[in-house]
Structures are given as C-alpha cells and as structure tokens.
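Researcher: Please translate sequence to structure tokens.
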Amino acid sequence: MSPETLNCEELARRGQDYYDRVLRAEIEPEHKGEFLVLEVESGDCELDADEAAALNRAMERHPDRVFYVLRVGSRTAHRIGARFARREPA
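Model: Translation complete:
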C-alpha cells in the first residue's frame, strides 16, 4: 500500500498489530522507554532513546514511506499537557 493511500487509522492499526505480534516480546524487556520507528510495509524498524535520531535513520532507508512511532513499554509516544499533583485543601 502506498503512503498516499495509507490513512492514519490504518497505519496505527497495522503498526500496533505488527509490534504486538512480532516485536514486543523481543524488544520490550531491554528497550523500555526508547522510541521505535516502524515502516509497516517492510517491518523494518529503528530503536533509539532519541526519537529524531531513530526517525532520521528510518527516513534515510525509506525516504518515501510513512512510519508508525511508539515509545516501548508505554501506551503513548508523547504526553500533551501538564501533570497536576493533587493537593489537599488548606
């Protein structure tokens, strides 16, 4: 499937499915917290603590592709917003 016809939902579904079936058991124990950049057509991936470094290496090998990015061992790659601590009333 070409990048032009792969929508965001399909990319996420296929990327997560491939990660769960093929990569999770092998990668998660030793790379928790790192970023995984996956080219879903080939299964080719890059791991790095630096998301940009992993993405740049993946783009060098597959310049015309789209990628699924996740943080190993986390439900999301990024968090938006601040985390508030709950305080007791004064």
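Researcher: Any highlights?
Model: The longest helix spans residues 8-31.
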